[in-house]
Amino acid sequence: MTPSSTLLVRRAVGVLFVGWAVLAIALSLDALRRPARELCHPFTDARVGGVAVVMDIAPSIQESGIEPGDRILEVNGQRYTEVIRRGLGWLREGVPNHYVFEQRDGSLLSLDLLPEPAEWTAQPTTLLVQGLLIIGALIYLVIGAGVWWLRSERTDAFALLLFCCAMSAQLSLTIGTDFLKWGWPRLAANAPLVGATTFHLFTSYPTEPDWVVRHRRIQWVPYALALCLGLISIFDIQLGIPAGSGITVSFWFTCSLFLCSLGILAAERRRHEGAVRDRADLVFLAATVSFVPILLIFAAEWILRTPFPYYIALVWAFIFPVAVGYGIVRRQLFEIRNVAKSSAAYGAASLAITGVFALLITFADALVSRLDISFRWFQVTFLFFAILAFNPLRIRLQALVDRFFDRDRETYRVAVREISEAMVSMLSLSEIADRILVALTDTMGVERAMVMMVDDEGKVLRAMASRGEWEDDALAVEIPSDHPIWKQLWMRREDLSRSDFDDEPDEESREICRDVYDTLEVELLVPILYGVDLLGVIAVGRKISGERLVADDRMLLRTLANQSSIAIENAKAFDEIAKLNETLEARVEERTAELRDTQTQLVQAEKMKSLGQLVAGVAHELNNPIGFVHANLQLLDEYIAKLLAPGRSAQETTKAREAIAKLLVRSREGTERVKKIVQDLRTFSRMDQAELQDANLNEEIERTLALMEPRFKTAIAVERDFGTLPRVRCYPGQLNQVFLNLLMNACDAIGKKGKIRIRTRRGSDGVRLEFHDDGPGIPEEIQRQVFDPFFTTKPVGVGTGLGLSISHGIIERHGGRISVESAPGRGTTFLIELPLIASGPEA
């Protein structure tokens, strides 16, 4: 059959099974509304393996000698197993029926009993359990249909659907079968079907045994047997077979297939490792919890001939489809063994505490009796202090269990924190890769690991760094961008194991992907993703301890991948900036300081922008002395020509020399003026000073004001109120940037005419600087945003919105703080508080 025809057949069979389950649930719901006066036998029975035994007795026959556990042999001369097929419609009110019972001692008891209204069977507990079973049937149906809807292309999802539908119908038929329409025939047909679907499911999930893969039709053999058993159970009398024999065989058929399926699951679990074993553990545990109690109750009923309320055990049977559905839909499971171990430890600790507490209570009672203490308050006080003493013990025990079972997780948390802190400063791809490998081998304990990175052209994944023993063939593996593994890592965006490709429909792609895992001999491939780009892959081998990689390991790997992706992008950005700096350095003076990081580049760029706004004024300041020197040079040339001309008198020569001397003195004054302006600019920018220095902030402010003088002209007055300040150990160039930004903003706010007041004082722990302008002020709703990056009230193209943000960062890195006080119409004051020694790192 072709894949499309197989899918169509599965859909048809699936719809048929879903319809069967829906019909069973609908008829069970309808039976809950049965009339209270409907007649029934004066007892209820339990039928295990085709044998009916008394379970409950009507109040009217309590004294008749019938006991729970007695076998029901005949009714009106017919075998009871034949009569129950007729339902209850033949009973007549007031007409007695002759019953024959076999009691526990082997004696026969014959009684004529009247039918009873069914209301005596409608006990609250029975109705509650029946309602819970119907809810369980709905859960089975919803889970089976839901998983099949999500994974309709998978054989295990189809097998789960059939099993859930059969179990849903069985749960609906469990209680009150006699009151259901066609209850007995439906039960006879469905009972062997449960066994067949169980075998089908366990040979499809968590893995298909090799003998099933080679002979897939073997999965349909139990269905054929179930069909035959169903027909035999319904028509056994017509076929000349003793009544009830068919249902008995069906019962043992289902039990045998269930036990056989558990055996197959255990055998397959031993043959596999990794994710397959995790899924096998999950299924085995869920099946044990859900169905083994039911089988034990059935066995007890069969052996002891005592009816037990086995249907109560069916209430929690929904655990099995939930677990299997979870495993089919989500391939990465939680660590079952750790959960079981920690639960057992909690239980043991709780039992120990309870035992000691009970011992203390016994001791208190004995002490009261021995000392003949008649006061009740003694026992109450003793118990009160015992509770107070045991509560800390309980907390300590719980913490101890948590630490024991969570120690790996705590180790991982510490490792993640250390890695996150370390990767912030890493700007080398090889350093990042080595840090990842150290974390994997030292923290997780894997025997070997590899980091593969995408080449510069983004077309191939190649090994960049490795740790552990690797073959040359493994180190030479390359994964091109059109490889199926590349596509799966990029599309799924999660770590992938070899078993994750088991459901790949394309056999060629599946084998290509498996070859990569086999060649590298690794357990997991973890993608390093940044946005929509695949940057690299972390290949993780087995643990040295032999343990499998569990959920905590995968979480650490994902965290490593996320942290490394950010670090890799930072490293690439740094490399690009470094290359750009090299290009710029080749075109500008060699004395230009190298940019250390992106933040320094941003600060320096903003500083250069601010200095650029001073170009016109500084150019004017430089033009005057340079023009003066230029004119003096022309005069000097003339005087030198006269001095060298022949026939000059001594007096003329003396005058020429005096004029030359005056020109040289005046020219030297002009060059000193140019030198001072250049020195102020150089000192202001501090391009050659990147370390902490002792500075007088009054002088630094004066130097900034000198550069701003052309901007002030005569329109803006500067009022200086400088106090005596101690020298501050700081980065003067960065603080000059702050002063310049504040003065520039003040000039922009004042406009044409106004006043700036600068006040400096010594504070209790450092210095206090105030810059006040009498501009229009800043509205209160804007004051909260003035230090935000890129926030500006200036027109587009005039302001960048970075000046105050950078200033705020510089002051904070010095260990100080900057704030603003303003009100519309009353100007603006920026307040700076700085410690005497900068406490923050260099910007």
Structure overview:
The chain is an alpha+beta fold and 843 residues long. It has 6 domains: 3-21 and 125-329, Rhopdopsin 7-helix transmembrane proteins (Up-down Bundle); 43-121, Pdz3 Domain (Roll); 351-405, no CATH class; 409-573, Beta-Lactamase; 615-685; 693-835, Heat Shock Protein 90, CATH 3.30.565. The chain has 26 helices and 21 strands. Helix 1 runs parallel beside helix 4 (155-172), helix 9 (275-304) packs antiparallel against helix 11 and helix 14 (407-424) packs antiparallel against helix 15 (429-444). The longest helix is centred in the last third of the chain and has 37 residues, at 551-587. The radius of gyration is 45 Å and the shape is elongated. It starts with a helix and ends in an 8-residue tail after the last strand.
